[in-house]
Design brief:
By secondary structure, this protein is of the alpha/beta class. Strands 1, 2, 3, 4, 5, 6, 7 and 8 form an 8-stranded mixed beta sheet that branches. Helix 9 links the parallel strand 7 and strand 8. The chain is globular and about 55 Å long. The structure holds adenosine monophosphate (AMP) and manganese (II) ion (MN) (3 copies).
């Protein structure tokens, strides 16, 4: 219902509930696109972006469900990016899912995941955990889209750890035995794909990257200089202090502000769909011209 969209971040009466970051079974989420959208509608989300990792294949199903549920779906994806020695995530919001440049780019990213997953399996085998690649494959729910989350679920099922977050802490995070370096797409290339597809490029959960103050300022300046549109100031990955910090960064760097739960499914996410706080006053939201 574009006519009723509030253009202000703070308008108390007309304020819509936005959740611009979520995952389905088309990447590493636990709910189908249909079930995810239905859940968002039940939770009074007005505008939901489906942003599966390196994948657009859930959008048709999600759009159909959004039509049935009376909520607005934003076509999105979360792109895996290599910047210096850091892996970053860039959200593409309001992309055209039929854009061939974007489709081909994401296909290449997904193909890269397959070889990387075999190397993760080899690394875990060397650390005394055999069969992890085949084990992770059993948790894959979308063709060619294998992620560390699927390895985490295998490690939980096999009793190596109790929860998925422990799988990252002990095995899958940088510096741990099951971590392997990987070259994703470059930052300018990712932003370009999103723009060619008519979308906005938003740096996801910036507080999650292991960067000091100077490193973060360099990243934000570079992201802005290559045409990045916004940063996810409010994220379930952030502390309240980080939310405040990135609100300030958005203003200083002239970037728009986004907000997303990064919901992955029941039992695997701290924050449910639509449960982010409102954007603070004086912040220019990424949806201001939607
Ligand atoms: P990948 O893109 O294959 O490297 O997998 C990244 C995904 O792993 C993220 O999107 C999260 O869903 C998940 N992830 C990363 N770090 C953690 C963590 N510390 N705890 C739980 N899940 C995590
Ligand atoms: Mn994920
Ligand atoms: Mn992410
Ligand atoms: Mn995500």
């Amino acid at each position: 219902m574009p006519g009723t969209v509030c253009r202000s971040a703070t308008c108390p009466h007309l304020m819509l509930r936005y959740d611009l970051h979520s995952h389905s079974t088309r990447s590493d989420g636990l709910l189908s696109p249909h079930a995810l959208v239905r859940r968002a509608a039940r939770r009074a989300v007005d505008v939901l972006a489906l942003t599966d990792h390196d994948n657009l294949s859930g959008l048709d199903e999600a759009r159909e469900a959004a039509r049935e549920s009376g909520i607005r779906l934003i076509d999105g994806a979360e792109l895996s990016v290599s910047w210096r020695d850091v892996t970053l995530h860039v959200l593409g919001l309001r992309v055209d899912p039929s854009c061939s440049r974007l489709v081909e780019g994401l296909t290449a990213l997904r193909d890269g995941r397959s070889g990387r997953a075999q190397r993760i399996g080899d690394a875990l085998a060397a650390a005394g955990i055999p069969g992890a690649y085949q084990g992770a494959l059993k948790f894959v729910t979308s063709e060619n889209l294998i992620s560390r989350t699927h390895f985490a679920r295998f490690l939980v099922e096999s009793g190596y750890v109790r929860e998925t977050r422990d799988a990252f802490k002990h095995y899958l995070a940088p510096g741990k035995p099951g971590y392997v370096a990987h070259d994703w797409v470059t930052l300018p290339q990712a932003v370009d794909w999103v723009h060619v597809a008519g979308g906005q490029a938003v740096l996801a959960h910036p507080g999650r990257y292991k960067l000091n103050g100077e490193g973060m300022r360099k990243l934000l300046a570079e992201f802005r200089d290559v045409g990045g549109d916004g940063i996810e100031v409010l994220s379930s990955s952030h502390t309240a202090a980080q939310n405040d910090q990135f609100v300030r960064h958005a203003r200083v760097f002239g970037l728009l502000a986004s907000s997303g739960s990064d919901y992955h499914g029941p039992g695997e996410s701290w924050v449910d769909l639509g449960d982010m706080p409102p954007l603070p006053a004086g912040t220019a939201p990424v949806w201001k011209d939607w």
